[in-house]
Amino acid sequence: MRDNIEMTNAKAEPETAEQYKARLAAYVDGKDPIEIQRQTPAILAHLIEGVSPEKLKQSPAPGKWSISSILAHLADDEIASGWRYRQMVENSGVTLSSFDQDEWARLGDYGSSDPGEALEMFRLLRAANLRMLARLTAEEWQCFGIHSERGKMTVKDLASQMAGHDVNHIEQVRQILAVTEPRA
User: Fold this and answer.
1) What is the pLDDT of residues 111-153, one digit of tens each?
2) Element (H or E) spanning 9, and its range?
3) Cα–Cα distance between 30 and 36 in angstroms, integer?
4) Alpha carbon of 93 to those of 54, 113, 155: distances in Å?
5) Pairwise CA distance, residues 109 & 25, whole Å
6) Distance (Å, whole) CA 65 – CA 40
7) What pTM does this model have?
8) Is the backbone of residue 117 left (phi > 0), alpha (psi -120 to 50) or beta?
9) Nearest to 176 by CA among 73, 88, 43, 65
10) Separation of alpha carbons 107 and 63, rounded Å
11) What is the DSSP string of 124-167?
12) Most CB atoms within 10 A, among 73, 143, 166, 180?
């Protein structure tokens, strides 16, 4: 499975790159993607506040990521996105490679990652990327790359996709907490 393409149904049929792009775009339709990105670390911090590290590391189902793994993934993905933004601005038209998120999870040992550290890493990387995005000119927002799976994307497109990616994972965290937290 590459670059955050998720499973779409119980039959475990992978969604296509176009379906993935459309789903993320729907999450941010009519909203400010930069504001979504700015709020995401605080939303995640609020969601996991008071939840035990054991619960955060608990997988909701076989083969599914725990909240801790999702947080580690968000940090890693922020590294990749920061690189992509900078490459597009520096070399508009550059080829953007995809990455195998499951291999990155294995290499990063997501299963044993500390959720607080992963969230803090994500927060710091996101802040750095938002500072860079805030300084871009109108022309730089239109610089682009050719993603190996998603085709041509501008810096603006990638910022919007990252906001949709945030919403996707926030909802996953909420769903996991709803299943694993005792009901009052």
Assistant:
1) 899 999 999 999 999 999 999 999 999 999 999 999 988 889 9
2) none
3) 11
4) 44, 36, 11
5) 30
6) 19
7) 0.87
8) alpha
9) 65
10) 16
11) HHHHHHHHHHHT--HHHHT-EEEETTTEEEEHHHHHHHHHHHHH
12) 166
For residue 124 the two structure tokens come to 């710091």
Give the separation between CA 83 and CA 165, rounded to whole angstroms: 17
């937290």: which residue's tokens? 181
Domains and CATH numbers, the chain: 21-180 (1.20.120.450)
Residue 4: which pLDDT band, with cuts at 50, 70 and 90? very low
Kind of pairing between the strands at 144-147 and 151-154: antiparallel
Q: Rounded to an integer, what distance in angstroms lies between the CA atom of residue 10 and that of residue 30?
A: 30
Q: At what angle do helices 155-180 and 17-28 cross, to 10 degrees?
A: 80
Strand-pairing partners, residue 153, are 145
Distance CA 49, CA 182 (A): 15
